[in-house]
Amino acid sequence: MVVLTGKELVRYYTNINQLISKGKIMKNMLNNQRGVTFIGWVIILALIGFFVLLTLRLIPLYNEKMGVITAMNAVADRTDSGKLSAFEVRKYFLRNADINGIRRFMDRNVREHVTIEPGPKRGDPKRMRVQYESRNKFLYDLEFVLVFDRSVPLTGEGTGEN
């Protein structure tokens, strides 16, 4: 161990201050610090993995929702949708849901989820309403929940808007 005294100490600090002011020490530090450490890579990969898992769990819920909306609009877009009975509306909805790859609705449970309601005002067309709740497990006891409640008018004019 070297002990600096008096003039040597002053000279040492003067040299360091001159090097700092010229930027040589910062350049040397930058040259020695390259790349990401192992811990940095672990953190980066963990974040990427988290977002990939999040995406893989949310896409099926969103895809199912869009398929149900498409099936509802297909029934509402029929030219005779205003004259269909509740049974026929459910039958056409099941067909379209099956075409869109939605397996949630079957003959035995379609009455729970698909209802036909009168229009809000007298003289308004009846409406097809679909309600359901879909869950997708995320991690352990955490789940994503999609609550779907949407209705479309059955005017028979091809207006499948919400």
General description of the model:
- With 162 residues, the chain is of the alpha+beta class.
- The chain has a domain at 60-153.
- Helix content is 51%, strand content 18%.
- The protein contains five helices and three strands; from the N terminus they run H-H-H-H-H-E-E-E.
- Helix 3 packs antiparallel against helix 4 (86-99).
- The mean pLDDT is 84.
Task: Describe this protein with a few key phrases.
162 residues; alpha+beta
Shape: rod-shaped
Helix content: 40-55%
Structural class based on helices, strands and sheet pairing: alpha+beta
The spatial strand order of the largest sheet comes to 1-2-3
Distance between the termini: 81 Å
**Element-by-element helix/strand order:** HHHHHEEE
Q: How confident is the prediction overall: mean pLDDT?
A: 84
Summarize the structure.
This protein is an alpha+beta fold. Helices cover 51% and strands 18% of the residues. The protein has a domain at 60-153.
Q: Secondary structure elements and their pairing?
A:
Blueprint: H1 6-22, H2 24-32, H3 38-76, H4 86-99, H5 110-113, E1 114-117, E2 127-139, E3 142-153
Helix pairs in contact: 3-4
